[in-house]
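Holo model, flavin-adenine dinucleotide. Inputs:
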Amino acid sequence: MTVEPIHVIGGGLAGSEAAWQCARAGVPVVLHEMRGVEGTAAHHTDHLAELVCSNSFRSDDAEHNAVGLIHAEMRALGSLILRHADAARVPAGSALAVDRDAFAAGVTAAILAEPLIEVRRERIDAPPPEWASVIVATGPLTAGPLAGWIADRTGEDALAFFDAIAPIVHFDSIDRDVAWFQSRWDKGDSRDYLNCPLDRAQYEAFVDALLAGGKTEFKQWEGTPYFDGCMPIEVMAERGRDTPRFGPMKPVGLTDPRTGRRAWAVVQLRQDNALGTLWNIVGFQTKLKHAEQIRVFRTIPGLERAEFARLGGLHCNTFIKSPVLLDDRLRLKAEPRVRFAGQITGCEGYVESAAVGLIAGRLAAAAARGETLATPPPTTAIGALLAHITGGGAADTFQPMNVNFGLFPPLDASVAKAERKPALAARARADLAGWMAASTLPLAGGAGVGAADRRRDKPAITAAFPPQREGRLTAPPAPPSPPEPPSPADTPPSSAVCA
Ligand SMILES: Cc1cc2nc3c(=O)[nH]c(=O)nc-3n(C[C@H](O)[C@H](O)[C@H](O)COP(=O)(O)OP(=O)(O)OC[C@H]3O[C@@H](n4cnc5c(N)ncnc54)[C@H](O)[C@@H]3O)c2cc1C
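Output:
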């Protein structure tokens, strides 16, 4: 039996993991990575899976932290990225931090040594129609022509080039003795918004804190992407002390039930996921540093004990409106041969991108083998993230999301607060084990295809083409043809705002 190769576009965290999962399930892969021929504004090497900024995979605590839990799930599923992160680990307390060069070199060497993966150093501008199965894993800095192809397939307003992230708060950490449910002018469902009132003194102190708070700077190549609807809240305050009060903090049409009056200003929160466990602070995209966000936003009445599932930000970031565009298997509804993986799906971070690459690879490999792989239960960390980006996230306000316990179906209210995270982790472990036991797809761990980790009842699948090896790890191979003069297709679509 021969199987057509899966074409993975992008050899970052997600694409490397997806390619590995496919190959280890016995399905041949062509991995197309443009670095080596053409760079990005953030990458510095030609290594696959380069970490563009921090060297941290964040918490490795699988009992109390959803990132640590997703690490554990990825290890159980034979993740290439986690294996090489563990191998390149450097001391960082309870976090998993790595020697970035050793990590990326390890991933690159493993991919090059895998007989079922062919690496091609080339930029893909559009997947040719003859490619039967494609995984687009081109990340936050997707090259302009491919972004144009995606915009053609999805509609321009379904593809973003900047994120504008407002902080997200766990619902059960909002003080509902202070915050009340009401929609402005009582239009729509009265439970659509939670409102936190500020009196004049509180508002003035809040504006002072916004103005004084430490900010992160844009990278030079990012430009300063303030456009309608995504101006940072602190920039609004810089433009006029009352500007936020006439913008996202306007109090009109809202009556504080504790006073029977309109407040001086109001901070509104809106439901952010179908489960109702996460609420975003409306219009509060921000470049304040993370610690400053926690300090400043906890001065808002009702949010004094807020726990943040995600803090705000504004970055150059190509991503699609996955909740409406993708099916539950990460396939583009309009063109199901094309799957998406990694940060372009609207997950956020190295770990999440690799996790979505892992599941995209396994789903694509199962399909190529003629098998049906159930999606992981939403009670697992990988399943919760997948469910969020493929439908659980609110489509109209969709912004990149980290994995966090707010994405998981909640536990029974009788579970004590201190016990909830370990209980969610225990449920995830049990449900992942059940899902893995029910799967017929070979696991990616172990010595490889054909070895002990391959299920005995599955026929061996041979590559449909002889694998070719890439010659070197870091030095760019010669481009296949002389560089072409710039054409309109080489520039990002007009809606792109990233330099
Ligand atoms: C400046 C910056 C700093 C960041 N800092 C952090 C951080 O500190 N921590 C964190 O967790 N996350 C950080 N991120 C987010 C991080 O980039 C992602 O979490 C992660 O790298 C995404 O993985 P990915 O595989 O989806 O994309 P990437 O790792 O970016 O991989 C995408 C790959 O696709 C290639 N590619 C693009 N277009 C094409 C094409 N048309 N044809 C062929 N190849 C193509 C690119 O060269 C790249 O190798 C940062 C992002 C940026 C832009």
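Residues 9-15, 32-35, 40, 42-43, 52-54, 123-124, 137-143, 146, 219, 342-344, 349-350, 353 surround flavin-adenine dinucleotide (CB under 6 Å). Residues 446-499 have pLDDT under 50 and may be disordered.
Archived with the compound record.
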